[in-house]
Amino acid sequence: MVRYPHTAKLISDSGSMVDGEWISGPPTESTIMGRYEALSTNNIIRHNAAGNEVIVQGEFYTKEKPVPGVLKIEITAIGVSKPIICWTPYQTHSVISV
Fold first, then answer.
1. Which domains does the chain have, with CATH numbers?
2. Least confident among 8-17, 56-65, 77-86
3. Which pTM was predicted?
4. Statement: residue 22 has pLDDT above 80
C-alpha cells in the first residue's frame, strides 16, 4: 500500500497572562510533514485536554515531537481542518488525533 506524505499547518493560540487574565494574541502557524489517515470506525475514543472523551475521526502520523498549545490542524491538499483532540508521543513518531 502506498502512503502519501502530507504537509500540515498547525495553528496555536498565542497570548499571555496579564493580571490573572488570558489575553489572546494573533494565532501562530507552523508546518510539519506526516501522513493523514481518516478512520472509518467510530470506536476509537481519546481524551482531550479537558479530560472529556471524544470520538476520533482521523489521525496524523509524524516524526515531530508534540508542540504544546496547538489547537488545530489543517491539511489543505485533502481539505482537512479539524481541532486536535490529543497529540501522543511514541519512541519513533507521534500521532495527532483529530
1. 6-97 (2.40.10)
2. 8-17
3. 0.83
4. no
Q: Is the CB of residue 65 less than 8 Å from the CB of residue 94?
A: yes
With a CB cutoff of 8 Å and minimum separation 6, the contacts of 9 are: 29, 30, 31, 73, 74, 75, 76
Is the Cβ–Cβ distance between 58 and 40 less than 8 Å? no
- C-alpha grid cell, residue 30: 507552523
Cα 61 to Cα 95: distance, rounded to the nearest angstrom: 5
Mean of pLDDT values over 35-55? 88
* Distance of alpha carbon 75 from alpha carbon 4, whole angstroms: 13
Q: Is the dihedral of CA 18, 20, 23, 24 positive or negative?
A: positive
Q: What's the grid cell of residue 94?
A: 507521534
Determine the length of the chain: 98
